[in-house]
Amino acid sequence: MRGWKYGRAAALAGGVLLGLAVQAQPAPSSSGIFSCTDARGRKLTSDRPIPECVDREQRLLNPSGTVRARIGPTQTAQERADAEAKEKEAERARVLQVEERRRERALLIRYPSRQVHDKERAEALEQVAAVMQTAHKRVDDLQQSRQRIDAEMEFYKKDPSRAPPALRRQMEDIDRNTKEQKRFLGEQDNEVRRINARFDEELARLNELWLAQASPRPAAATSRKTP
């Protein structure tokens, strides 16, 4: 029984050693030879990529000597970063171009003619004009109220401090509201300029698009049969 145990242990140990020996053997190289000329002008060959030629092209040759593939130089970290940045910039430019074409199509759908564009500009300006008209009317009403207050204050011209507090508060409220209305009117003036600037910019682009749309497209070349 003891001998059987020793024999089994020896067999197991032998199997382990055999497995380690197999793992220690080098993996067979791929069929093909790498070839290049290094910076010193030496022609080098190897069964794997050649470290001396990482900065230049290497050729992978078949056993017959014909070129199977060409392997470009290995990029440095900075070169890879520069290439990635350049690719991202190109992709960003492509996205912007697609977005610009989409905006142009939407612009043409919304404004198929100059008349439609002019009409929408006029409607936008009319809305602001209506708001400004109301504000101007409010300023006129405030100024009339102020004139009445000024007429009452004539009684206290020599000593305004003797004027009733309610009268002074009315005067302060009128002045404050007048100032706010004038500020609002100034904002509406800016809005008119913004609207005109927007429609002017659109019109300049639309003139180009309308012209391109109206221009006859080149006829496709047709083949003629010889009689």
Helices and strands in order, then pairings?
Blueprint: H1 2-24, E1 33-37, E2 43-46, E3 58-61, E4 67-71, H2 77-110, H3 114-153, H4 165-214
Antiparallel strand pairs: 1-2, 1-3, 3-4
Helix pairs in contact: 3-4
Keywords:
227 residues, alpha+beta, four-stranded antiparallel β-sheet, 65% helix, elongated
Description:
The chain has 227 residues and is of the alpha+beta class. It has 3 domains: 30-74, no CATH class; 76-110; 113-213. The protein has 4 helices and 4 strands; from the N terminus they run αββββααα. Strands 2-1-3-4 form a 4-stranded antiparallel beta sheet, with no helix packed on it. α3 (114-153) runs antiparallel to α4. The protein is elongated. The N and C termini lie far apart (106 Å).
